[in-house]
Structures are given as C-alpha cells and as structure tokens.
Amino acid sequence: MLSIHDLHARVEGAEILKGIDLEVRPGEVHAIMGPNGSGKSTLCSVLGGRDGYEVTAGSAQYMGHDLLELAPEERAREGMLMAFQYPVEIPGVKNIYLLKAAYNALRRHRGEPELDTFEFLGLVREKLKLMRMDESFLHRAVNEGFSGGEKKRNEILQMLVLEPKLAILDETDSGLDIDALKIVSEGVNSLRREDRAIVMVTHYQRLLNHVEPDYVHVLSQGKIIKSGDKTLAHDLEAHGYQWLLDEAAA
Amino acid sequence: MSTQNQDVEQLVKREYKYGFHTDIDQESIPPGLNEDVVRLISAKKNEPEFMLEWRLKAFRHWQEMKEPSWAHVHYPKIDFQSISYYAAPKSKEQREKEAPQSLDEVDPKLLETYEKLGIPLHERERLAGVAVDAVFDSVSVATTYKEKLAEKGIIFCSFSEALQNHPELVEQYMGTVVPPNDNFFAALNSAVFSDGSFVFVPKGVRCPMELSTYFRINAAETGQFERTLIIAEEGAQVSYLEGCTAPQRDENQLHAAVVELVALDEAQIKYSTVQNWYPGDEEGRGGIYNFVTKRGECRGDNSKISWTQVEAGSAITWKYPSCVLKGDNSVGEFYSVAVGNNYQQIDSGTKMIHVGRNTHSTIISKGISAGYANNSYRGLVKVVPSAKGARNYTQCDSLLMGDRCGAHTYPYVEVKEPTAKVEHEATTSKVSDDQIFYLMQRGLSEEDAVNMIVNGFCKEVFGELPMEFAVEAQALLEVSLEGAVG
Question: Is the alpha carbon torsion for A28, A34, A36, A38 positive or negative?
Fold first, then answer.
C-alpha cells in the first residue's frame, strides 16, 4: 500500500530525513516512535504533501502512484488522510460544512453521487456517538475555541467519516487526558479494518496501550534505527530511547 | 516564495465578466460643467421649478468646495470638465427622450444587456418576487412590479418619475438626510444627478417583496450620478437591494451617488448593496471611481436602519453608509464585506451618530485585501450628550492574502454621554498556508480551500443579506479572489 525507500528530505536547507525505509500493507497498524527532533513530524508532512519540504532522494509509492508526484488534495482523494498534530482553526466555517465538503470531494473523485444534507447528517451522527461528541460540535467553527482534547477527537471524527485507506495519525495522543485518550483510542480502533492501514506517529508508548500496533519503528536522526513488534514499545517505555541510540551509534 | 504562492499569483488574474459594452444609440451632452449644463439636465427631464433651483444652489455650493483628500486613496486629479454629465439610451421612437412606459417599449438590445447581467426584467422570470428598477447610465429604464406594489400604496419608481408624479414627496424629503452641501461629491450629485430610484412605503405597510435596482454604466466618458430616496412611514418595512456593473474600459469613470433613507416611528429599512463596478485591470488601468454618500436617518422612535454591503468592484471606493439615530430606541446596523484585489483602493466604513436615548448600533466590517490592494476601514461612532444609554458594538476584521496588500483601520470614537457604552474589537489575520494545507489534506482543491476560508471570514455579513443575494454575493467573492492567497 505504502512503500517508502531511502527517503531523504530537507526543510529550510537542513536535511531532516536521511534515508527512511518503510513498508505498510493493508490491515496493518504501524507505530513510529522517536525522541523529539528525530524527524517524526517531517515524515508526516512529507507524506501529506505540505509545502516547504523538499525531497532530495528516495521514493514513496502509494497504491500504485508515485506519492511525491501527487498534490496534497490528490493524496487525500486517493484515500491518504492525515490527522494533524496541531489541527488548524478555520473561523466561521462550521465543522459539518467542512466535513460535508470533504466527504463529497472524495465521493466525486470516486465517481459516486454526492450525499444530500439529510443522508450525510445520518452518517455523521453515528460517528459522533462513537467519539462521544455532542451534535453541537457540528455547528461550531472548525477547531475554533476547541480544547486540545476536542481538537484531537475532531480529527478522529473526520477520519471516521472520510474513511481513509491509509490514515496517518500525527501525535494524536499528545495533549490528551486519560479519558480523552481512551475515547480517541476507541475511535482509532474502530478505524482498523482489513483493507485499511494506520500509521501512528507518537512520542509516548501510552497510546499503544490502547491501540495495539502490529509493528513498531524507532526513528532517530532521520532514520529508522530499529523495527520490531509491540514488545519494542514496552522496552522503550521501560528503558527510554537512550539505549537504542547508544546501540545504533555503536 | 513557495510554489503555492506562485499558483496563487496566477489564480489572482481573474476576469471581469460584466465587462461588455452594449452598442446602443446613446444621447449624451458634451463634456463640461457649468450652470447651463445643470439647467439643460433639468430641462431634459422636464423638472418642476423647485428642482432646478435646488440643483443650482447645490452647484454654487460645489463650486466653493474642495475635493476631499483625507481618504487613504491615491488617484490622479479628476478633471470635472472632461466628463459628460448626461447620457441616455435613446428610446425606440425617440419620443421626448423619456423613460419607456412599459417593458414593450424598451429597446430589445437593452433588455439583452440585462439578460447578460443575469437580471431579466420580465416579471415572470428568475427574479420573481423581486421588483427591479434598472438604471442604465443615467436613465431609469423600467420598473417591474409597479402595479402590484401600487395596490398597497407603495411607490417604487425612477427618481424622474417621482418628480413628475409625486413632486411634493420629493420636495419634502430630498436633502433632509444628505443636504446638498454635505460634501464635495454629494454637492456634485445634487447639481447634476440624472436619475435613480424612489421608494415610498406608507404608514403601516410592509413591503411584500424585495425591491431592487440595478445600475449600469454603459457610455464612455460619462459619469453616473444617481440618487436614491427611500421613505418608510410609521410602522412601514422595506428591504431594498442595489447591484452595479460597468463595461471594461481603460480610462477611469466617475460614479458619485447619493442615497438617503428616512425611517419614521417604528419603521424599518434594510438596504443591501452588491457593488461590482469594473475594478480596473491587473495593472490598475481603468475602473470606476466610486464616491458615494449614503446616509439613513432613524427619525422616529423605535425605528431601524440596516446597511449590508458587499463591495467587490471599483478602482477606488469612497463610501461610508451611515445612520443618524435620532429617535429614541432606534437601531442602526452596518454589515460590510469589502474586497480589494490587484490595485484596487478602498476607503470605506460607516458613521453611527447617536442622538436619541437608548439608541443601539452594530458595526461588523470585514475587509479582504489581495494583490496590491489597499483596504481601509474608516468609522465614526459619535454619541452626543442627549443620547442616554446609547450602545455601540464595533467589530472590524481584516484578512490579508499575500504580502503586498495593505489593511488599515481608522476608528473614530466621540462620546459625550457618560451612560453610553461603546465597544470596539479589531483583528487582522492572514489566510495561512497551514489553513490551506489542512483543507487540501481533506480533499479540497486550493481554490475551494481559499473560498471556504474567505466565506467563513465573511459569514456574519452574508447572513444579513436577503437569501437570494447571499448566494450571488458568495459567487462574486469567489470570482473576485480566485485563489488569491499567499
């Protein structure tokens, strides 16, 4: 589904990603962990297609496309959606309005008829329940005045409604209290499907207590220095990153 | 500069879709302005004596006055002697050069123009439910729904017709809100105005439909000077909309209008404008100079006047729709979206003058600047000592697109009454790359993303527009700003 080879990327002249290799197949959940400054967010931005990130070498294939050739909206329409670490406020634009515009943009791309407001509302209500969000959420401006937890829940709500093939969750657990973490985790778990892959980027192990990954990768200084199964995450929790960094340096 | 920025640069290059010119037999008088021209205009329109006297008085005032220079706009000096002050499409039979009496007498070419503008005059068509008065250059062409309105005692006609058929009403109210010597451009208009719209809603009547005027400048080297007067008697209610377009020309054209609103006890007037005069090209060539005086007086207790405007066109906009809140408990509102792209210059805002007790006013101003445009909000909130319990709330937001445009805010607050409460909030923001990326990462195109952000920014104002026109305004904004982001 997603196949990354020797990916190098620069931001403002500095090389941040120094050769990433990653293979993600449908149905898999990958966790990418790493200390601050290891390149986690840069990797997300490059995958999402954010402006200002220059890929200097390597390749990324997604569902038969050269991912790096696709514009951000094309990546989204092909089913690769990103939950943001810092969801952006769009004043005056209602949540439901964005959700519906996005949903119909994806449907149009697939050649499916757009849903009308009533049909759409029915669909969204179901997902709201899952995220234990009140319907009033839909009528608030996108992320405006939302608490940190509300913003993250809103991101997962968007994922649930837009049904990506590949969901990239950038630090979705940061800034969440225990209750919110639980709700968000339940949301992520309900995203799991045989034909869908999830890549979770996170600093801490705690999200992984709720969402069990199939693979864990440790990112450091722009490279994946170790990959393993979920037990790797437990080792990291117990011993920190340092032993791995030392091992990699040795 | 990022690649997104460059895309945006290309997208900014919009085209003005109303830039056509109608080839039609025009009758205009030679350029120049003196007392004889004023007399000629009055004679052509077969006006009552008082009107000519009024015009001449205004003209003499104007000669003594100086063109204002305080606004944050720059333009070469206007040569008022090079403008023709009267242009009218000749009617088919050339009879009296008067406005046609019914739609059948209107030149088909003119009707075609309105079709192109999307304003079919035929009563059964798209705008059903909206009565339209169309002013083409200087003359009012046809007023639809006149009879239906007359049944309720409502007068909706061209200003010239009002002068012929209801001179006493015109004489009683004209100039009582905007005196002929109010300012330079109002004085000029008072001397040479050629036509416009007149609305009178009698006591206790709620106008059953939106009234609408479309202004169109067609002839070259003419100015357009229309005048609108709306009177709502005790308890009357009326909602009025004006739209404006002009052909694409390299030279600048002057538009100096005056609008006066009078609301008596318990009356309500809602005045909405979608202004889309030709803004000039990408290099700032051509475009309309729009110098307009609009003022409403809440003369009676519990009356209300509400201005809503979407200003997308004109090379220069100089416009401050205002409310004088004389009656106790009267309410004034100003909702504005002003968009400037390329080299457009906008100096616009409002004045809220609180005179009566417990008068309330609300100002919501949204300025959007793109390209090299300069967009200034200029607003005065004045509370005189008699206005006990007066309240004002002002919210003034600016949105910038790109890094070569400007947004400026000039709020003036004069409060002489200690029980008054005046609030002012202002924000300036940019359409950020982060916002655009966020929306694109949800599958929206860059253009749709920008439109969504801009529409969100303007939401409070669009919500005030009559339904039929909110959609039009939204579409207009999308055309005006196609992708204009940085």
Answer: negative
CA neighbor of B435 nearest in space, from A142, A199, A21: A142
| Tokens 């609103």 belong to residue | B261
- What is each CA distance from B192 to B38, B44, B45, B216, in whole angstroms? 6, 12, 11, 17
Q: What angle do CA B461, B199, B134 make, to 5 degrees?
A: 75
Contacts of B442 in chain A (CB under 8 A): 76, 81, 98, 101-102, 105, 158, 162
ipTM of the complex: 0.95
Task: Collect all residues of chain B within an 8 Å Cβ-Cβ radius of residue A92.
Answer: 455-460
Task: Using an 8 Å CB-CB cutoff, list chain B residues near A76.
Answer: 440-443
Half-sphere exposure of A119 (CA within 13 A, CB side): 6
Q: What span, in angstroms and rounded, lies between the C-alpha atoms of B68 and B293?
A: 13
Would you say the C-alpha torsion B437, B438, B443, B448 has a positive or negative sign? Answer: negative
Domain extent for A116: 2-249
List the structure tokens of B397.
């937001």
A240: three-class secondary structure by DSSP: coil
The per-residue pLDDT for range A149-192, each reduced to its tens digit, is 999 999 999 999 999 999 999 999 888 888 999 999 999 999 99
How many helices, marked H, and strands, marked E, lie in chain B? 11, 23
List the structure tokens of B193.
């105005």
Ramachandran sector of residue B443 (left: φ over 0; alpha: ψ -120 to 50; beta: rest):
left
**CB-CB contact of A236 with A205 (8 Å):** yes
- pLDDT digits 0-9 by tens, B139-166: 555 566 777 788 999 998 889 899 999 9
* C-alpha radius of gyration, chain B, whole number: 22
Give the neighbor-by-neighbor strand order of the sheet with A14-24: A14-24, A2-11, A53-62, A65-66
Give chain A's domain count: 1
* pTM across the whole model: 0.82
> What is the spatial distance between Cα A176 and Cα B466, in angstroms, rounded to a whole number?
43
For residue B36, what are the contacts with CB-CB under 8 A and spacing of at least 6?
A: none
**Interchain CB distance below 8 Å, A72 and B459:** no
State the pairing for strand pair B237-245/B26-28.
unpaired
Percentage of chain B exceeding pLDDT 90: 50
Interface of A with B (CB under 8 A): 48-52, 71-73, 75-77, 81-82, 84, 87-93, 97-98, 101-102, 105-106, 109, 141-142, 158, 162
Q: Which helix (H) or strand (E) holds B11?
A: helix B3-12
The answer to whether the CB atoms of A51 and B460 lie below 8 A apart is: no
Interatomic CA distance for residues A39 and B164, integer angstroms:
79
CATH of the domain at A127: 3.40.50.300
- Look at residue B243 and give its three-state secondary structure: strand
Centre a 10 Å sphere on the Cβ of residue B478 and count the other Cβ atoms it contains. Answer: 17
Cβ–Cβ gap A72/B437 under 8 Å: yes
Closest CA to A95 of A122, A127, A135, A131: A135
Chain A residues touching residue B460 (CB < 8 angstroms): 92
Number of Cβ within 10 Å of residue B128's Cβ equals: 13
Decide if A223 contacts A19 (C-beta within 8 A). Answer: yes
Q: If DSSP states are collapsed to H, E and C, what string results for B288-319?
A: EEEEEEEEEEECCCCCEEEEEEEECCCCEEEE
C-beta pairs of A202-206 under 8 Å, 24+ apart in sequence: A202/A31, A202/A32, A202/A33, A202/A169, A202/A171, A202/A172, A202/A173, A202/A174, A203/A33, A203/A34, A203/A35, A203/A36, A203/A40, A203/A171, A203/A174, A204/A173, A204/A174, A205/A33, A205/A233, A205/A234, A205/A236, A205/A237, A206/A173, A206/A181
